[in-house]
Each structure stands twice: as structure tokens, then as C-alpha cells.
Amino acid sequence: MYKKINLDYSSLEPFIDNETLDIHYNKHYGKYLDNLNKLLNSVDYDYKFNLLELVKNINIIPENIRGEVLYNAGGVLNHELYFDILNTNGKKEPTGKLLEEINKKYGSFNNFVMKFMDTANKLKGSGFTYLVLNNNELEIINLPNQETPYIFDMTPLIALDMWEHSYYLKYQNNKEQYIKNFFSIIDFNKIEEIYEKEIQKNK
Q1: Long-range contacts of 34-39 (CB under 8 A, 24+ apart)
Q2: Domain that includes residue 190, residue range
Q3: Among 16, 56, 83, 190, which one is least packed by beta carbons within 10 Å?
Q4: 8 lies in a domain?
Q5: From the CB of residue 165, how many other CB atoms can be counted at a distance below 10 Å?
Q6: For residue 13, is it within any domain?
Q7: Are 16 and 170 in contact (CB under 8 A)?
Q8: What is the pLDDT of residue 203?
Q9: Same domain, 185 and 162
């Protein structure tokens, strides 16, 4: 069975409160994971793939539950990236090759942040805002609900959860402040690890 990643509930104070993290991690992320495992167990899936491999080989899943498996798998992958790149003690700005690419594409890191925040603010309804690698090119995109960039052959480097459950207890309807504060708890050490691994793989 697929299992939860670890999370320190207090690690994002004061930008995201403990109650929100508890609910988000256990009741939302946890529900996607539980639903996914139940669906897979119902067809005696052997868990031979990791979750990303399963998404990329989704045709092995019977068609009648394939959509639900993909939806819940997206919910797990999206949440795991979101939680994994957040750390109040992490590196707040990129360096090295990633910074070079950001400067090349957006002009500066500050321009990138402004573009990312603007894109997130324009998302309608529920979904995620991502920085992705698309054919080795950086791109900022919105995807609805629990669609994952992996199904479009893109690799997400940053995932910002824009579902209301991720911020509403603390920020209510002030999602702009939540988006702004996201860059106070981001960890570019983790993001650069993903970027470097993907770039090496595609050489």
C-alpha cells in the first residue's frame, strides 16, 4: 500500500497554523491516500510501481475505475510535493542553474515571484499553481482540482495548493496573503534537488 510522507505540524507557524496543517494532512491528503489504496485493493493491484510510475502507466488499471484512481493519485502526488517543499528554515531563493533559468525566462527572481503570484490569483475554483519543467523549459501553470502535471509529461518543481481548505481557517477570503506568504515557507533546497535530478535525466 502507498503510505503517507511525514509532516511536522508545527513547522510552518506562523504562516500556516497547526490546525490547518492537521486537517489538511490527515483529513484531505489522508483521504486521497485512503481512497486510492481502497480502489487499487479492489482490483488486487500488486503495488509493483511507485505512485508516479502508476500514473504514467495508468492504462494497466481497469477502465471503470481508472478516472477515480487518477484523481486520487493526483491528490496524493500534488499534496506530497506541496508539503515536501515547505520549510520555514529552508532556502528562500534559488541559486545555481535553477536561478539562471529563472532569470533567463522571467528576467529576475522577483519577476518570477510576481508572475507566480499573479497566476495563482487568477485560478478559478479549486486547483494548484505549479512551476513545471515542460520539455526542459520552465513554465508557470494552473491545473484544476487534482490534475497533476505528470499526466501531461511535465515535471512539477513547485506546487501551491489553492483549494480553500489549505488556507481558509487562517486567511479566510484573503487568498492573496496566503499566496504571498507561500514564499516565506518555501524551501529551494528541495526544489533545486528535483530540478537537478530532472535535468540530468533528460540530458
Answers
A1: 35/68, 35/72, 36/2, 36/69, 36/72, 36/73, 36/75, 36/76, 37/1, 37/2, 39/65, 39/68, 39/69, 39/72
A2: 96-201
A3: 56
A4: no
A5: 13
A6: no
A7: yes
A8: 64
A9: yes
Q: How many helices (H) and strands (E) does the chain have?
A: 9, 3
What's the CATH code of the domain at 46? Answer: 1.10.287.990
Which tens digit of pLDDT belongs to each residue from 148-157? 999 999 999 9
DSSP string, 80-113: HHHHHTB-TTS--S--HHHHHHHHHHHSSHHHHH
For 61-101, write each residue's pLDDT tens digit.
999 999 999 999 999 999 999 999 999 988 999 999 999 99
Q: What is the pLDDT of residues 113-123, one digit of tens each?
A: 999 999 999 99
The percent of residues in the chain predicted with pLDDT above 90, rounded, is 88
Domain finish residue from 84, 111, 138: 84
CA dihedral 13, 14, 18, 22 (to 10 degrees): -80
Is the torsion defined by CA of 145, 149, 150, 152 positive or negative?
positive
Domain count, the chain: 2
Q: What is the mean pLDDT of residues 155-169?
A: 95
